[in-house]
């Protein structure tokens, strides 16, 4: 066969050369563009719809309970948020334990390199070794920087009931794998290094953080994630600490932001992209706090914040038809430069609604001895799908007589039109308010049921309802604290009662739990385990 010679015109060659030149210029000059907006600096996972709905159900139950009680230590409803902050018997001191992740280096005097500042560490990692040991920050100096950062955090949170104290016993951990891959190893790191219980704050520092391919400044699993195979604490980049050297972002507000997540605060724009709908609509819940205002997107996605620090310039309002403006200076918003947070009055950092939410989350998930509270019941839902036809089965849980859909497998857990994406069994432990009646519905599109084993629901380890595996197209289980009704005619069985104090023992060993959307690779049939309560790591 005679090869075909393809001719390239001079014009095409010239165009390609110009394209290469432009791409090179963009690559070279991009880092010099100091005003580039940095978006997505936080790696905290957006809670699923299920997570948010269950959390809200527990929050409502807690608020209603406190209305009925006269115990001042449990009171959450105040005339002003400042009253909550200034009432001495509400003040909570939170110890902070800081952990320095380092790179082992037998040639160094200390045996490891604290990977800061960033330029010295990058030079070290390239293998050029031009940076001497004196070019790196010492643990003593870094600890002083962290103390300055904690001082800033206390200023940001000064109108809340919480105060923070940095403990002296910091840890230094020479572990190359952990230091370079903090997100992937967070469970092992927290299990090995974490101190105190859920009421203590552990801060882990790394040279950089990568969350599923995205470089971030920090992240913090929510308190309500506990028991789901997620390491409790705050995880941040060394360079974001006060004086750490991160361009535009080294005043220390990253730590303050991530602590907000640790307390259960969402981003002020959290659900702005929910279902691709209108982020400014009345149905959009944003961060579930009434006084933060609707927000179409993070401020950093649309604006350079310093443009609004000029006298006479009005702050942006991305949802003009809503009564409240964007929470521009709020610590849970994204601004492209931390100077803008510093320029605001500290009262703009957090709203009264956020402060109340922090206090409620503290009582629900951190200052609690048992998995479920006194006005809640422990519910265990367990069943398996046919491993070959898992996509046929869907299920949902809702309250009876209301529109509160607590979870729906079609839309939750990153599912794409089926119950779970390649998940074949479900084992859920939930803490649900007692005053409601609930309905669990499982459906099979082929009409042969789950074809594996029965679906069961157990309430307070006392009442159990079981639906046969071959339930057909649909099976329903209605339940309250004291009764279960299986599909209207199936029997309800009861086992011997247990004391309510035993609820804390339902937490499995920390290492055995999987979070929502986490896949087990050690067994053939994947199991979803998630627990809605407070357990320690």
UniProtKB/TrEMBL annotation:
Q: Where are the transmembrane segments?
A: 510-532
Per UniProt, residues of the Peptidase M43 pregnancy-associated plasma-A domain are 247-358
This protein's record includes keyword Transmembrane: yes
| UniProt keywords, alphabetically | Disulfide bond, Hydrolase, Membrane, Metal-binding, Metalloprotease, Protease, Signal, Transmembrane, Transmembrane helix, Zinc
Gene Ontology annotations of biological process type? proteolysis
Q: Name one GO molecular function term.
A: metal ion binding
Q: Give the family per the record.
A: Belongs to the peptidase M43B family.
Name it: Pregnancy-associated plasma protein-A domain containing protein
Q: Which organism is it from?
A: Nitzschia inconspicua
